[in-house]
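FYI - complex with S-adenosylmethionine, inputs then prediction.
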Amino acid sequence: MSNRGHRPVLLKEVLDIVDVTREGIYIDGTIGLGGHALGILRQNPRAALIGLDIDEQSLDEAKKNLTPYADRVQLFHADFRYIPGLDIDFSAVRGMILDLGLSSFQLDSPERGFSFNQEGPLDMRMDLRNKTTAFKIIDTYSEPRLARLFWEYGELKQARRLAKEIIARRKVKKIETTTELRSLVEGVCGWIPQKGKIHPAAKVFQALRIEVNGELEGVAEFLETMARKVPTGARLAVISFHSLEDRIVKRTFARLASDEGGTALLRLLTRKPITPSEEEKISNPRSRSAKLRAAEKL
Ligand SMILES: C[S@@+](CC[C@H](N)C(=O)[O-])C[C@H]1O[C@@H](n2cnc3c(N)ncnc32)[C@H](O)[C@@H]1O
């Protein structure tokens, strides 16, 4: 496949836990560059794949990468939360994958503004039709709102101080680029690089990205809708990259697998999340924080 820097995270683990050997439809709600999708199509000639992504550029890349299997693939430029509205035969669905977060393609495109390591505009939109950019948030949110954002979505200790500094700074000059924001964060947090420590800008960028793209909104409701919609035996798998997201997936699966308040809809396939092997973490550092959870429709 093209985009040589890209390696699907926990590929074998995902294909195994979803059991992609069965005939039917597999849905990849975050198709990205098509890494997991390609794994399914290669392994199972009786698999039809439905792929969605809110990022049109990523979807174009996926389309190229999946060309050899085009007759078994249907792609949609849409939010995965739209899946229940698709006009497909849900009774034939055998599995669904969500690999949340960013692709290496997005991170490695400085003009998208996702990376604090590369100079770019403060954009961070996965869907370019979205009107909210990171710049707009930094430029218009009030101090308490910024502080809450950095605290809740970035778990940044210096959230209030950073919010205060942003307000003071933007009165003098607009904060427009990734590197401007990074150096401001470094100043406020007194950042000194240390092995094993997370750069504070990583937390700030994560918070902004979650807010720009509404990443946590409606995920629990979506999983519940899908759990009701798919047939017995279908498997749902989600890879998360930060604790806020993972918490939502964990709690939702646990709730839907419990008998309380009615009959359980799901059976948990992972009591504890599956995480990458040491080997994968070394060969693909992006996989380090990945957690895979899966459940089967009862
Ligand atoms: C980690 S990448 C997926 C990589 C993919 N599994 C692969 O192997 O190539 C995440 C992708 O999900 C997309 N995405 C994030 N949130 C989404 C949403 N709500 N709906 C659809 N796509 C989304 C991003 O645009 C990105 O392309």
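Residues 6, 8, 29-30, 32-36, 52-55, 58, 79-80, 99, 101-103, 126 surround S-adenosylmethionine (CB under 6 Å). The chain has two domains: 11-101+216-297, 110-213.
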